Known about the structure:
Blueprint: E1 18-20, E2 27-29, E3 34-39, H1 43-52, E4 61-66, H2 76-80, E5 87-90, E6 95-96, E7 101-104, E8 109-114, E9 117-122, H3 132-144, E10 149-152, H4 161-169, E11 173-177, H5 186-193, E12 199-201, H6 206-215, H7 225-242, H8 251-264, H9 270-279, H10 281-291, H11 302-317, E13 324-330, H12 336-352, E14 357-364, H13 367-375, E15 377-378, H14 383-386, H15 388-394, E16 395-398, E17 401-404, H16 406-409, E18 412-416, E19 428-432, H17 442-455, E20 456-463, E21 477-481, E22 486-489, H18 525-533, E23 537-540, E24 546-550, H19 568-571, H20 574-590, E25 594-603, E26 606-616, E27 627-633, H21 646-742, E28 746-750, E29 756-759, H22 790-800, E30 804-810, E31 814-824, E32 830-839, H23 841-851
Parallel strand pairs: 3-4, 3-10, 4-7, 5-7, 10-11, 11-12, 13-14, 13-19, 14-18, 19-20
Antiparallel strand pairs: 1-2, 6-9, 8-9, 15-17, 16-17, 20-22, 21-22, 23-24, 23-27, 25-26, 26-27, 28-29, 28-32, 30-31, 31-32
Helix pairs in contact: 3-4, 7-9, 7-10, 8-10, 9-10, 11-12
Amino acid sequence: xxxxxxxxxxxxxxxGIERQAAGSSEPLRTDFPIxxxxxxxxxxxxxxxxxxxxxxxxxxxxxxxxxxxxxxxSTLHELLKRYTxxxxxxxxxxxxxxxxxxxxxxxxxxxxxxDGYLQLQEQDRKPGDPHTIDYFxxxxxxxxxxxxxxxxxxxxxxxxxxxxxxxxxELGTVIAQDPETARYDGMPKAVISAGxxxxxxxxxxxxxxxxxxxxxxxxxxGSDRRETGLLQKVFAIIRARTKHDFSGYKLSTIHRxxxxxxxxxxxxxxxxxxKSLEKNGEEVDALFKDLLINVTSFFRNPEAFDxxxxxxxxxxxxKSEGSTVRIWTTGCSTGxxxxxLAIVVEECLEELGKYFELQVFGTDIDPDxxxxxxxxxxxxxxxxxxxxxxxxxxxxxxxxxxxxxxELREKLVFAIQDFVEDPPFSRIDIISAxxxxxxxxxxxxxxxxxxxxxxxSENGILFLGxxxxxxxxxxxxEILDRKWKIHRRKGIQREMGRFMLPARAIWQETAVTxxxxxxxxxxxxxxxxLLQALAPSVLVDQHYRIAFVQGETGKYLELxxxxxxxxxxxxxRPTLKNELSAALRxxxxxxxxxxxxSGRMSIDGILTAVRIAVRCVSGIPERAGHMIVTFQDIKExxxxxxxxxxxxxxxxKELEQExxxxxxxxxxxxxxxxxxxxxxxxxxxEYQSTNEELQSTNEELETSREELQSLNEELMTMxxxxxxxxxxxxxINDDMKNLLNSTSIATxxxxxxxxxxxxTPAATAIFNLIEADIxxxxxxxxxxxxxxxxxxxxxxVLETLIPVREDVRIRGDYWYSMRIHPYRTTNNTIAGLVIxxxxxxxxxxxxxxxxx
Length: 852
């Protein structure tokens, strides 16, 4: 018998895996897996295969959500009992979930999992596809996070996609039935097409995979050194093709997706799969797409956005009205989070009655997701997340889908960017990095969080996911909301040496210093030995910025005046600068070592020769383009030679003058070169700024082009529909004209003002009508009727809507049956009257003859 809660209070959540059920002495177990099973048409056949393979004691609880007929009681739980030894029950409200049980959703109910219990709610009887599966999967994601697991079986429609997204957002597991084995493949295909399925399996193969996932006793790929090395090789292959590095992502997430690709391509071990990756670039692209976790939704965790609004209003109150509010959504995927933030800020501005320029940046490494975000077109299922009011205000219906209105889309810019590697934005007021950090390992998080701090303006807001923290960087942020992980940047001075900014940060003027005690890989051993053997030495990058210093270099290098620079040419002593520059240039352009021995330096009035050696670093991908610059004094000093005779004095003076002239000319050339370099640097910055503006303009033009194209398609569709209507109307008019011309019944159509709208040719025998009389009142037209009260009768019928039938005659003693009826439109509204005259003269004559 199913256990239920003895009172209506929710159980108090403790920190452990067991909690005390209200009014019960038994602890409430939550240490076993609970799996959601979604199905629709054809689901019984798939569930019979799934549960038929389950042993009686599997240690798993299943909750089955099937689309059921709301007008009939369900017998699904009775049917499933035939296929499994597990206990099968129809779920009831507040029932305690137990292992080795299968709970079936009742008709007309939505079901949720909350703190160890199942809760039922009445379904909203709204038109459209049901979302009962989505609701339960979302509750699993909120309760179990990365332990949430769901299965999608046979069915039509797309119910389950939004719920699977919620589970994927928490790093849970999604299993879809192989569409080839499903009677109706709509639901499995929808999940697979959205890139959410970790595994695609026939129903009878799900149990072994489910046990492997839940047990977690053996990793999917393996954790020994050999397998770890192979995994790094996978990362290297992906990095070489896509320029994106996944080595800093959590291996538990990577394992599952690589295992899925191995299963799809039928590989038993990772080594064979790597060989396939090396030969097949398309498979590398497919793996890259699988590693991208494009899981998002509008207003995910609505309570979090409600809490965020309070701090956004505070932020806006502290900004000067008319300034720009800048928002950055990292890992924006298909753009729902970015649009949600934009809507929230718009609502805050409306509530505060203030005006600010809004600029929202959405970035992701997936080009397809960015294209979707730019279009701003989303399926009808977003209605539940957005809400009816926001849907009407910020979206328009387009081809059965919802598109973000142009006014809002113009305030967002979406771009391809790896926020781990690429330079961040700056002066940002709000950064949303929700559910991004959970995919990164601890070391990568330590590099990313300070970068987010750098990007934020003073008192800027950082919005994280509920499962994310700022780690050891509590001195950089102030916690505003501990539950929803909302932080405010502290206005402290950035310590640039404390963390390493991205390698491609073009806005970083000085290089990050490599700590001397940094543990180097084996490939660095030769470099360390070289630095020690040829001290004093300096390690510089391809831009001549100093990254590492070994030995006493003060004799050759000195701090430059003015703004601090780590460029070795700026720090070199004047007499060595020319030779050093030439050696670096030769090593950079010709990719070879360079040595210069003609350097001169004055020490205590003695001109000493200096050997400058520049050696290129090779065999180390992380140090590509780096060079080692070594300084060495030549033991035999070169002293100035004194003249030995008068005959040499003239020649010596001539050479000295020529040397002096050459030095001055060289100094002047160097100064001009430095000036030119400064101008080029300034021009380059301007070009970069212009390029960003052009890129933004290009995105706007692209959006406008898409909108114009869409508008053109809509106009073409409307034009076709209008042309069809016109053709139909022409046919109807022709039919009506022929009908009116062919009938011998005299008919006159009047409007509500008793003006003539139309008449049949037979009516001209009674009324003196011509085409020009259309629009004239009926009482302005002369007739042959011997009936003077026609205007009063017409007015009475128009007021009372009661038809009138009378026999009337015209001059010459000719009789008609006059009938006056209200003119009713298809909308059942009165739009005038219809007066018809039916010839009854023969009938009257016969009647008179009979009487006589």
